[in-house]
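Retro notes
What went well: the complex prediction finally ran end to end.
Inputs used:
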Amino acid sequence: MLRFRASIFKEILLLIRDRSGLAILFFMPVALVTIMALVQDAPFRDYQELNIPALLLNQDEGAFGEQILARFDSSRMFDILEITGDEQALKKKIADGTYDIGIVIPPGVSDYILAQSNGYAEQMMRDLGMPVLPSELPGIDSTKQVGIFFKPGVKQSFRQAVLQAIRQESSQLETATLIRSFKTILGAEDDGEQASDFGNFVAFRERPVGDEWLEARQTNSVQHNVPAWTMFGMFFIVISLAGSIIREREEGSYLRILTMPGSYLTVLLGKMTAYLGVCLIQCALMLGVGVFFLPLLGLPALDMQGMTFLNLALVATSCGLAAVGFGVLTGTICQTHQQASTFGSVSVVILAALGGIWVPVYVMPAVIQSIAEWSPLFWGLNAFQHVFLGNGQFQPIAAYLLYLQLFFLCCVGISLLINRARQQA
Amino acid sequence: MCNSGRSRVQQAENDQGVNPTEALIDIQSLRKEYPGLALPAVRDVSLSIQEGEIFGLLGPNGAGKTTTLSILCGLKNPTSGHLAISGFGYAGDRQVIQRLIGVVPQEIALFPKLTAWENLRFFGNMFGLTGAVLKARAFELLDQFGLAEFRDKQIGTFSGGMKRRVNLIAGILHHPRILFLDEPTVGVDVQSRNMILNLLRGLNQQGMTILYTSHHMEEAADLCTRIAIIDHGTIIITGHPADLIRQHQVPNLEHLFLNLTGRNLRDEC
């Protein structure tokens, strides 16, 4: 026990004395959580909440222009600014990069729709053998096209969404106008606005099936990024821990310890305990950032309402153990600090990518998804999200805890075997 | 390897590892082969070192000194041969031997970010020393080695000679009966070397048996009661330095060393 305590104390002193290293261990993950939550805030939001800056040049004096304006105004998708002037002025503002989208409604579109509707209605009445005064169906007028201009680089899916919205509005207005034309021809009373209020004949049901917590975790970037980058930050101690092991080997203190009574495992356990402590402080710090700091930046607070402290402690400790185990293995395998630093950072980035830190695993190809299930960061991230958004049950996290702890034991076991093999060589 | 078992461990704990009927360090036909190397690093090495000796193991680079020392310290297992320290072997009595020996590696095996006292406290704790006993012992040695006023300074700020001295103190904190030193004076100034050698003599006079390796022939001739010259993994001569110089009619140990090991460079990588 004395050796264990001495080892912990020594490691804590070494960590405290390495102020720049300590700053990196704590500041970098906090910066990562904050920046990534901010950067990914928009992509995680529903399009309905995007408030994309848009321009509208409405030269139409009829119903069409007004309805388009009302539709986009009421939508949270756009933050619309109506301008006057001409199409060139609008294009210039888009090209300047201030606005992502510009819509130009040319003059006389409403009259054009009305003329078209009347023409079609009369044509149909004649086809049905009803007495209608002959009139000429107006041809297609290219000057009545609604112009939609995008900033270069705007995603195709977004363009389609905008086009779809305008088409839908146009379609509704055309239908309403057509019906109004029929009514006029038939001498029925025009009830104005109500003519277009059909609603949808077919209703849609939309609800998630399977893991309902999976739906909840997509609600915002904080809910994804805080546990994700907490895991990533905890795993980044691999470089620091591996560096410490290699330094002790290079400086000879490792060999000196081997000549002293007692098992090296006791000393290693002391080192691992100190680094596990660092991981847990990192975790607490980053969750604190999610709950208290990110809301100050306009982001939603981390939702931890499903959490029990015991489950959180178990998950954080298991994740910390996995990170520490991987650090010990990296420090054992790598011969130099440079090797450990390169291998450690690249391997953590790969494990993070596979684990769904950047992109959720469920959007990855099937092959990658099956590989991702072997990443300790995947286990950790899923366990964290179950803790935050579950209902306090232990069962959903049990398997992940087991995997993380087995990973730790495997890493430490392999490291000890490698050390023994080197000693016996 | 010597016999082992709980009874031997118990006996060692009872009498603090003293077994006066045998040579303190006994090596017979020691051999060490490394995978991938055609020649063994150590072959047929036999040595018997008595209690109270200062024994110098001398040899050119790559001769097998460090490998032999590593085997004696329990850091490497021999391929074959017999090794006993105070009658105990590493196979069964590792912990007993580790309490008997102190090791001073060639590297400055200390933590540069810790102070001298923090380093000594850690290594003292590794030997089970703690509290006032450890503090008194560490401060006494720091004082003896002229480092009392630097005990709260980080090792990283020390000169090479000061680091060597703390390195040595860390190996003798627990009063070992046997001290293994791998080139303890390499890279230190004349004053530090003089102090280290005088303190080694003092430790030896207090009953500590010392085995050390060195490249300094003059230093070895001055310090050692006996030396062995090893080359190509084999002991080629053993004896008291003065006797060997007289027998081989050479002016000093360095001439004898060059006569026996040749004048070719022994670069190793």
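What we learned: The beta strands of chain A are 52-58, 78-83, 101-105, 147-150.
What to try next: split runs per interface for comparison.
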